[in-house]
Amino acid sequence: MKSNTNDLEMQATETIQMKVALVEDLREIREGLTALINGTHGYKCVGSYFNMESALDRIGDDVPHVILTDIGLPGMSGIQGIEILRVRFPDIPILALTVYDNDNKIFDALCAGASGYLLKNTAPARLLESIKEAAEGGAPMSPEVARRVVRLFREFRPPESAAYRLTTQETELLKLLIEGHHKKTAAREMGISTNTVSFHLKNIYLKLQVHSKTEAVAKALRERLV
Questions:
Q1: How far apart are CA 73 and CA 99, in angstroms?
Q2: More confident site: 152 or 46
Q3: How many alpha carbons fall within 13 Å on the CB side of residue 191?
Q4: How many Cβ atoms sit within 10 Å of the Cβ of residue 25?
């Protein structure tokens, strides 16, 4: 009996799939990505949408583990959509997949709540790895984008007056939030419990006078707090 139970558990584990929702207006790219995801063991495309409006209307029907979206969409932009999706599904990683590699687009997407930023020339194998990485709490970026982000942060300088009186740990946590971490991964990076992270988050929100992680990250970047 024990052996049969173990076999059933193993079969259940093997059938678990990484569910991905996709927002892409170009049909050939959308169909290609859908085929790539569905054709890879362990992955499943649970929604393929040609614009953000359709995605927002239907994406909750089968909630994905990761959302992959273009930025340059007809109608509502991908960045606007990311902001709304981040509010509706705060725990789902959102990856921007786009041809845009300029500083403003990268900055806007990350401030809106994107967990990562990939260019459309990303190799299929790397794209699949990035989806898994995002689902596990990472913040995947194309090498070109990562270099730009590093340069942007090097140019940032903290304000002369630390008006918000953030502690060292609060500042460290804010940096991790900017990098795309969530509570569990931030706790692991800082060597503290998730309850302690929640405590610091409440203090950060109070000091910055914001109500969410997205608002805190946006304010930190805009005012160069870290």
A1: 12
A2: 46
A3: 0
A4: 16
Q: What is the pLDDT of residues 133-161, one digit of tens each?
A: 999 988 899 888 888 877 776 665 555 33
Give the C-alpha separation, 70 to 21, whole Å: 12
Q: Which tokens sit at 214?
A: 């997205």
d(CA 115, CA 169): 22
Is the CA virtual torsion 176, 24, 18, 100 positive or negative?
negative
Q: What span, in angstroms and rounded, lies between the C-alpha atoms of 20 and 164? A: 39
Within its chain, how far is the Cα of 199 from the centroid? 22
CA–CA dist 145, 141 (Å, integer): 6
Rounded Cα distance between 209 and 120, Å, is 37
Contacts of 73 (CB under 8 A, 6+ apart): 23, 25, 51, 52, 81
Question: pTM above the 0.70 mark?
Answer: no
Q: Which of 191, 186, 188 is nearest to 204 (CA)?
A: 186
Cα 170 to Cα 30, 111, 202, 203, 206: the distances in Å are 40, 19, 10, 8, 12
Instruction: Supply φ then ψ for residue 150, to 5 degrees.
Output: -60, -45
